[in-house]
Specification:
Layout (H helix, E strand, L loop, with lengths): L2 E3 L9 E3 L11 H12 L8 H8 L2 H15 L17 E3 L15 E6 L7 H12 L4 E4 L9 H7 L21 E4 L3 H4 L4 H7 L21 E4 L3 E5 L32 H11 L7 E6 L13 H6 L7 E5 L5 E7 L7 E6 L6 E2 L11 E4 L5 E3 L2 E4 L2 E8 L2 E8 L4 E10 L2 E8 L6 E2 L10
Parallel strand pairs: 3-7, 4-5, 5-6, 8-9, 9-10, 10-12
Antiparallel strand pairs: 1-2, 4-17, 7-8, 11-12, 11-14, 13-16, 14-21, 15-16, 17-18, 18-19, 19-20
Bound molecules: fe (ii) ion (FE2) (2 copies).
One fe (ii) ion binds next to loops.
């Protein structure tokens, strides 16, 4: 079995999932269900073809067929919203811990974010520990639990619960002292979103907001806000799957309804319009989604940015995952879409593709991490990492770190009358790749 040694865990389990099991995993439900069964059979994806055939001349071929057909023929999970919630509207106070007499509004508020983290690898475990060391008030996962985000994988890769089918030490998503949220990714939807909505979300949310009823996180979107800032998490994963098979064929996938659109669901748009009302607001705005708005390395998903143009007419900070890398962009928008300072942080656990060429020169890429972490079975892998945000009054500090907890760069922002203003970029690791000599281009 392709696993690596790690520190001994409960029940004699002393192995983590080896990242080589995840290398070259395609964004395909069919192939993701296949890779899950290959892993359950204990066969590396790099194993010779006869080994794979042997593995599948067993119950695993039936399990693959069953899980994939279940995905194809059963409807995806109901899109949960706040209309049927008791009292909750999905808008929560962004605040530090309550001291005696209530929280001090000028105290720093710490938020730790990781994307594409749900892998169960030792790198994911390291990142979870470093996030906890930051003592965050909130943690947010930007989505993707591998291979298909089903019950077994949510248990093993996010809830720290061992599954009997493999001797892997499970990993637990770190919670903030006030709350924790998880975004929806395409891989969660490969199992129709059932385990994401029914198993993972109930463990998250703001416990104090439901008066002990433990509803957890009620929906796949939310807003955290205070006097100066708003963090709005949106769901681009729910509509991220295209038509089976056809979505992978070039040209055909561009036909509306065939390829993935990542369209924001109607009830989410109504929530923005009725509850959040970003149009007349003048707080600093930070968006979170699983999918990238734009990219210098692969295709982007511009439809949500066009939907958001109804509400947002000023530049925002936008953190996303899906692409497994760290990349920092200057201000950019596609026709009809909002303007955003893009921050790709989808390097939270999935093996990072290192050495990939820039294929789209339009988005103003300023910095990215293309350092070589290791080479596994011929694949060059980059560094996993995460990001810590510290809010204090109208100031925001963003600290990008790798899985060894080394700072890669820090950026500092102010918000003044709704306008984001970049103040400085500091402590830039000299090994990061610069495509523009002035790092301050990340603010312009
Ligand atoms: Fe991913
Ligand atoms: Fe993804």
């Amino acid at each position: 079995m392709a696993t690596t040694a790690s520190s001994p865990g409960p029940g004699g389990r002393n192995l983590r999932r080896d990242s080589c099991n995840l290398i070259d995993l395609q964004r395909s439900p069919f192939l993701s269900h296949y890779r899950k069964q290959l892993s359950k059979a204990g066969v590396s994806p790099a194993a010779p073809f006869p080994h794979k055939i042997g593995a599948f001349l067993s119950k695993h071929i039936f399990a693959w067929a069953y899980s994939y057909l279940k995905f194809i023929f059963l409807p995806k999970h109901k899109f949960q919203n706040y209309t049927d919630s008791i009292g909750e509207k999905g808008v929560y106070v962004l605040q530090p811990d309550s001291a005696k007499g209530g929280p001090d509004p000028s105290s720093p508020i710490r938020v730790s974010i990781a994307g594409d983290w749900g892998t169960g690898t030792s790198e994911a475990e390291d990142i979870a520990l470093h996030m906890e060391a930051f003592k965050p008030h909130y943690t947010i996962h930007l989505g993707d639990i591998y291979y298909v985000g089903d019950q077994e994988e949510v248990n093993e890769n996010c809830l720290g619960k061992a599954e009997p089918y493999e001797p892997i030490q499970p990993v637990r998503w770190p919670h903030g002292s006030i709350g924790s949220f998880a975004m929806n990714g395409n891989h969660e939807m490969y199992a129709n979103g059932d385990a994401y909505f029914e198993l993972f979300l109930p463990t998250l949310g703001i416990p104090s907001s439901d008066e002990g009823r433990r509803y957890g996180q009620k929906a796949s979107f939310f807003c955290l806000q205070n006097k100066f800032w708003r963090i709005i998490g949106l769901d681009t994963g729910y509509n991220s799957l295209g038509f089976p098979i056809l979505e992978h064929i070039p040209v055909i996938r561009d036909i509306p309804g065939i390829g993935p659109s990542c369209k924001l669901p109607r009830s989410l748009i109504e929530w923005l319009r009725d509850q959040v009302q970003p149009s007349g607001d003048d707080r600093g705005l930070i968006l979170l989604t699983h999918h990238q708005y734009f990219s210098a390395f692969e295709e982007g998903y511009a439809l949500p940015a066009r939907q958001l143009a109804e509400f947002i007419n000023r530049p925002i900070l936008w953190f996303w995952g899906h692409e497994h890398r760290l990349a920092i962009y200057g201000k950019y928008g596609t026709p009809g879409g909002i303007q955003a300072y893009g921050r790709c942080v989808g390097h939270g656990g999935f093996p990072v593709n290192q050495g990939r060429p820039i294929t789209n020169p339009k988005p103003p890429l300023v910095l990215y991490d293309d350092r070589n972490y290791k080479t596994v079975e011929g694949a060059n892998l980059g560094f996993n990492g995460f990001v810590n945000l510290t809010f204090q009054d109208n100031r925001l500090s963003i600290d990008y770190r790798d899985f060894r907890n080394q700072t890669l760069l820090e950026e500092n922002w102010h918000v003044e009358a709704g306008a984001l203003r970049g103040i400085s970029i500091e402590n830039i690791n000299p090994e990061l790749t610069r495509t523009i000599s002035h790092a301050n281009a990340a603010f312009t």
